[in-house]
């Protein structure tokens, strides 16, 4: 027997990288949701028109706006830009709790913030833990309030398009960290978004299968691939019809790479964060391979099996179609 499901969903950040794909998947779902897009007054985001969508744009400093934005909502997905972490996220969560929301998807969607090494390596990770702790504190006064945190590691397609993972495809340059053979998990952005929609589709409780309550106050680990930097580069080479001789490939010590990022951050250069986040995932002994540590929820959520070369090809095609549409 399964209990009722989530019907009314508020999505914050619905025009962003993650939020836009969550919205797309919600609209495609056979379950008919009432979707409230909550957005800042000065937002530049453009949202699709659909009868199931209500857009509520207003000041996040206004208690009455937030109370009306979250009124009647079962679940809130916070697909928020990193600058909103933690203060704005916590403000939104407090308002959601006061409005009676029971399920919060906090802005996780990255590295394993259940791993002490990962938590300590980057300030953003401890801020994310702080958000989860704030929800549990609020639950003392708001019975039944729970969080569900989705762990994905760096998004593969998004990262390749941005030249992250130290693989610069247009310039055919790669920097392998400590040989690039350490295994880690990585998830396509579309799969990460789909996992949230699969979680939202679960019954609240069930005696015959997975339910949302199984994931209450827990991190949910999903992954498209358990792979290595060298395997991703091999795939990029297969897809682009190139080989090592076409690339400039250098090697760097992973620890030194992370420390360089930390030093940049200490000097006020936020871009050092990329070294810290990607380096800690790729180093091999810091929690990047969470599949081996905790297992995955891919099967329970019915996520599709994916092919590395197809994912790389799709990421590169998406980049080139966006580049040509920019030119037009
Ligand atoms: N795993 C990865 O590779 C990876 C990469 C990037 C991000 N992430 C994580 O994924 C989550 C979502 O990131 P994202 O890249 O999808 O976000 P994003 O596209 O940068 O921003 C999402 C939305 O946040 C809102 N926003 C922007 N600045 C804000 C501010 N100062 N205060 C409040 N709201 C603001 C905007 O919505 P409105 O304009 O509608 O208000 C924006 O569309 C975060 O938890 C982030 O840590 C993971």
What does this structure look like?
Residues 8-140 form the NmrA-like domain. InterPro entries: NAD(P)-bd_dom_sf, NmrA-like, NmrA/Isoflavone_reductase-like, PCBER-like. One of its GO terms (molecular function) is oxidoreductase activity. This protein has 328 residues and is an alpha/beta fold. It folds into two domains: 8-151 and 188-221, 3-Layer(aba) Sandwich (Rossmann fold), CATH 3.40.50; 156-185 and 225-293 and 300-327. Helix content is 41%, strand content 17%. It contains twelve helices and twelve strands. It has helices at residues 17-28, 63-70, 87-98, 116-121, 123-138, 156-161, 189-200, 229-240, 254-266, 272-282, 290-294, 308-327; strands at residues 8-12, 34-40, 53-58, 75-78, 103-105, 146-151, 167-168, 173-177, 183-186, 218-221, 225-228, 248-252. It has a seven-stranded parallel β-sheet, with helices on both faces. Helix 1 (17-28) packs across helix 7 (189-200) and helix 2 (63-70) crosses helix 3. The longest helix has 20 residues, at 308-327. The protein is globular and about 60 Å long. The structure holds NADP nicotinamide-adenine-dinucleotide phosphate (NAP). NADP nicotinamide-adenine-dinucleotide phosphate binds at residues 13, 15-19, 39-40, 43, 45, 79-84, 88, 107-110, 152, 154-155, 158-159.
